[in-house]
Amino acid sequence: MSAGRRVRAAFVGAGARGFSAHYPSVAKLRDDVQVAAVCELDPARRERGAEFFDLPDDHAYDDLDRMLDEVRPELVYAIMGPAFVRAVAERCLDAGAHVVVEKPPGRDLADVDALVEAARRNDRQCMVCFQRRHAAVTQEALRRIHARGPLTMCVVEFHKDMVGRPAPPWGVSTLWEDVVHVVDLARYLCGGAVQAVHSYRDQLFADWPNCYNALVRFDNGATALITGNRSSGGRFLRAEAHGRGIGAYMDDFPRGVRFLADDAREYETVRAADLAGSDEIHVQEGVVAMHRHFLDCIRGGQRATSHVEDARETMRLVDAIERGGL
Predict the structure, then answer these.
(1) Starting from the edge strand earliest in sequence, which strands make up the sheet with 75-78, in order?
(2) What is the pTM of this model?
(3) Domain at 132-281+307-323: CATH architecture
């Protein structure tokens, strides 16, 4: 990031995802962002969040409106589940702050539309955390493929073992809440607008939909194969992308990428640690780069790559897959 003023920010939410990814990532950018407050209903979490950023007691809030009125942050990181994010993000946007929200940006398309409208009427940005766009391996794969021409197809997979477990909370499907990560990655890799969708939704060893397989065609001619199975053997996320005489295979996403090019007989393997310059997973998977990108956009007047209007197209694709096609 180029040198410039620090952005005054606040966190709303101090849960597991915040502490595992967003708090440490934003802390790495302390020369460019000042976290001035933490707002959280749970007292223990609120205290932990304030201690993380070395905040005084009067900058640890349990009242969102009071925090917004007293601190007046330019940016709010609203890190919480989809059942709560619409009300919080709308309030922050109406208070004049830019907002970062986790995926998914709400419980349904109506929630997403509401955030689009709130961002527009306040002339503020709302960015959705699709950090896999910013992962070091994603960017390296796209760089090498686009150097030869267009990306022609991708395959993305995101599997887990949830056999015997209940359906996801908040009244949303596992596709909407979790598999959405690779749906968005497919959109980002392929580019273009969705033209056609063919999909299957299954209940495997469960009484709730836990397996999705989709074929998506984009208007630029690229094709995506998307699969997410919650009755598999464990957590596994991979992606591959293809272009003119080149294939990129991210089998241990986001820790590395293998390339085959020009009829090569052996892979060229590139480690994410070398690309990102770090062994930390939240750096390799793109969380730090994503937050740096948004700070650059706020200070430079550009639009974030996963601003909520673009994220709405991902959620519309999720909805089409859920419904069986488009």
Answers:
(1) 60-61, 33-39, 7-12, 75-78, 98-101, 126-128
(2) 0.95
(3) 2-Layer Sandwich (3.30)
